[in-house]
């Protein structure tokens, strides 16, 4: 068995002391955009893999776990989600899940790097199948700026589908950012944000809770789920709002007209379960 | 950042096309026993790591997830677990969790390789803290032989805490083995077995269900949970029995006198949730 940099893509993280690798068939694409380096690989067992600045972003095989859990818990917790903003999410997988909800009237996706979306259309066409839905708006600009200019109380759900809170993604984890989210959301509005590994990144989660609280979100809830290509294979999404975030429209989930590969009402409830070590 | 075989331990699996690595401080021990090669490493962020024949077995940092989920769901599903047999489990972590249950009168651990236990006592003393409990019996012999000689209807719970169903562990996933389990268990008895990754090993799970059914277990239930050092970071335990395995002594969990780091009643229920893709 050969394990080397030629036959495997490896994301090794000194800080967490962990690395994850996928066996490759070939490299399909590489480019440096004004914002980041994007690579696309064809893997042996996980389909296509998109890597940004050396970090695994999305694979054909396991992205359904992440995209479904970033979307459906928030949208089924909100009583009537009509206007949704996605910050980041350039691979369009979150957008596709959002648009499965028939009550959604408008879904704006704001990612700074158009090349992520164009490469996703080429290599992950299944994630982009709703890009031409008349309710979809794809904007390629700075998400913070977009949010700053958003009207007060104009949105029902904001989904932050971003990179880690290190480097360019850092600003999306600040109290100031959460204040803008709170202002742009209606009273019952919900913010959903990817919140890293429950095992490896507990201090990030703790900071998020404190800042969300300080920004005026009285309720938070974290849902955890498997995501094999991300560090530790265990990931989370955190909801913030001013309504009870532990109840959801369970009846509507049971009667939903679209299909999922991971999400259902039991999975939603299960993802809300808080491990003992996280209660401290 | 240096990623190489000197500073990292890597388990690379051609079959699943995935690899997981931990950054090392040093190698503490290596020996070839009559059964297998055992290595012990000191890692940067996961504490000690035991590796058997190149496969990650147990780390100080994340073993609580596996050991708690291999034990407490089975023992809280059984109405009154008094006699427990652990097949494999030489690191003694499962034994420790079993002996937290005050109603357990006898816990037999049967692992073929005494060196696993002796090295665990040395490098994972926290897992071995109940080895001298008067209810504990440590036997170093062939688990299949042990089970074949077990009296009919003499056990309440059998926990199979073994390696993968490839090589020496294979026999623990056969219909014949399950027949012996069924015979040795009392009517309400429960078999709990580690059942690999829900994402990567669906055919193993399907085979287990069929063979358990054929061996006379009318009910099965699979619980999934995170386990970062195992392939995909997402693992499972499957229960088999002739009672409802989806209900458990929830009241007793709420009132339990011992502490866990992961397990609680919500986690138990959540782990039973069946992802959509596994319903097929």
What does this structure look like?
The structure is a homodimer of 280-residue chains. Chain A has 280 residues and is α/β, with parallel strands linked by helices. Chain A has 2 domains: 8-59, Roll (Spermidine Synthase, Chain: A, domain 2); 63-278, Vaccinia Virus protein VP39 (Rossmann fold). Helix content of chain A is 26%, strand content 31%. The first copy, chain A, is built from 8 helices and 12 strands. In chain A, the strands form 2 sheets. The first copy, chain A, has a 7-stranded mixed beta sheet with strand order 8-7-6-9-10-12-11, sandwiched between helices. In chain A, strands 1-2-3-4-5 form a 5-stranded antiparallel beta sheet, with helices on one face. Chain A starts with 7 loop residues before the first strand and ends in an 8-residue tail after the last helix. The model of chain A has no long low-confidence stretch (mean pLDDT 96). Chains A and B meet through strand 1, strand 2 and helix 8 of A and strand 1, strand 2 and helix 8 of B. Strand 2 (18-32) of chain A pairs antiparallel with strand 2 (18-32) of chain B.
List keywords for this structure.
homodimer, 280 residues, alpha/beta, Spermidine Synthase, Chain: A, domain 2, Rossmann fold, seven-stranded mixed sheet, five-stranded antiparallel sheet, 26% helix, globular
Brief digest:
2 copies of one chain form a homodimer. Chain A is an alpha/beta fold.
Which helices and strands occur, and which strands form pairs?
Two copies of one chain form a homodimer.
Chain A: E1 8-13, E2 18-32, E3 37-43, E4 48-52, E5 55-59, H1 63-77, E6 83-88, H2 93-98, E7 106-110, H3 114-123, E8 136-139, H4 143-149, E9 155-161, H5 175-184, E10 185-194, H6 202-214, E11 219-226, E12 234-241, H7 250-254, H8 265-272
Parallel strand pairs in A: 6-7, 6-9, 7-8, 9-10
Antiparallel strand pairs in A: 1-2, 2-3, 3-4, 4-5, 10-12, 11-12
């Amino acid at each position: 068995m050969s394990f080397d940099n030629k036959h495997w893509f490896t994301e090794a993280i000194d800080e967490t002391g962990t690395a994850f690798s996928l066996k490759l068939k070939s490299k399909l694409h590489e480019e440096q955009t004004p914002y980041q380096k994007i690579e696309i690989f064809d893997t042996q067992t996980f389909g296509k893999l998109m890597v940004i600045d050396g970090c695994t972003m999305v694979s054909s095989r396991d992205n359904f776990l992440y995209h479904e859990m970033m979307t459906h818990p928030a949208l089924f917790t909100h009583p009537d989600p009509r206007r949704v903003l996605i910050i980041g999410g350039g691979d369009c997988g979150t957008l596709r899940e959002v648009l499965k909800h028939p009550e959604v009237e408008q879904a704006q996706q704001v990612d700074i790097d158009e090349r992520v979306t164009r490469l996703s259309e080429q290599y992950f066409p299944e994630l982009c199948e709703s890009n031409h839905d008349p309710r979809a708006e794809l904007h390629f600009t700075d998400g913070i700026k977009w949010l700053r200019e958003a009207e007060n109380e104009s949105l029902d759900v904001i989904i932050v589908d971003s990179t880690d809170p290190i480097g360019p993604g850092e600003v999306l984890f600040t109290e100031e950012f959460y204040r803008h989210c709170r202002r742009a959301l209606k009273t019952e509005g919900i913010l959903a944000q990817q919140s890293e590994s429950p095992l490896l990144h507990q201090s990030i989660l703790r900071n998020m809770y404190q800042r969300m609280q300080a920004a005026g979100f009285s309720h938070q809830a974290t849902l955890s789920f498997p995501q094999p290509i991300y560090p530790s294979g265990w990931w989370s999404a955190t909801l913030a709002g001013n309504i009870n975030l532990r109840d959801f429209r369970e009846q509507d989930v049971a009667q939903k007209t679209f299909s999922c590969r991971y999400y259902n009402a039991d999975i939603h409830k299960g993802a809300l379960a808080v491990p003992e070590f996280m209660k401290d």
